[in-house]
Amino acid sequence: MLIDLNPNIKVVRPEGQAVFPYSNSIFIDDKVKTLIDAGSGGKAYTDIAPEKIELLLLSHYHFDHTNGISFFENARKMVGEEELWAFTDENQFLRSSGYFRWEELIGSPKEESWSKSIHLPDDVPSRPGFQHWEMEVFKDGQEFIVGETRFNAIHTPGHSPGHYAFFFPDQKILFSADLDISPRGPWYGGEFSDFDDIVQSINKMTALKAETLVSSHRRVFYGQVEQLLHDYLKVALDRENRILDCLDLPCSLDDLAERDMAFESLPKTSHNIFWAKMMILKHLQRLIKMRQVKHLGNYRYVRTD
Ligand SMILES: [Zn+2]
């Protein structure tokens, strides 16, 4: 399904819900037919003639944004310069999940690869895992003029190191990709995720004064963008404050995770516990950097003041 934001800029909505393995894409129906992200599924892309897409830009390398790259065989393909490795360097790609920390954080060897066991819908043409693609790169601030429509790539790391948002200054439309306004707040559970970067990236997006916000996994929001971004960041900042409160007394990572510091209300699967711990670690890294917390060794922490 297509949602017109203006005569040229459209949101491609997946057939099912815009949740993994699907995500929203942006289609720019102008002189140069352009698509941002490739995870809406084959059924959704029948609305836009995939063979006519000339330029495919990726917000970042995660599977739910890249699984449909093969639909766009005639397109120039581009990703942010900070994430070219995800399509060229398999070792770095494997490292990015952080799964090499699994045994240390969970206490038992990682069971069968999640990527091998998941069931995917028929219109998702690839499976999670490293995919080699010839990619060109774009940079922070780079302007794309694709006919009457122009927009800029905005480097917004934190979720992943080469995560980009896209801003259409004439229409004040922001595509915030996986800074997705989820009620659970931002996700920063990857090896190369960084919570300081999340804070700065959300502030950077707020400064754009967008009037319409589209993200990868939610509906279109018209108006009150500043408030939405503020509330979204607040979910994570509140989590950081709760961590800090706990650390009045020495506390282990296990204790912090046990107190449900991240991923509240999600089922306690080993993957959810792993990502919760990874995200709590990102807060601890930031708090240590700000000298508010010190590491006592062996994943035990305490507040310094
Ligand atoms: Zn992502």
Automatic annotation (TrEMBL):
SMART domains: Lactamase_B. Signal peptide: none annotated. It comes from the Bacteria. Residues 22-217 form the Metallo-beta-lactamase domain. InterPro entries: Metallo-B-lactamas, RibonucZ/Hydroxyglut_hydro, Sec-metab_biosynth-thioest. Coiled coil: none annotated. CDD domains: metallo-hydrolase-like_MBL-fold. PANTHER family: ENDORIBONUCLEASE LACTB2 (PTHR23131). This is Beta-lactamase-like.
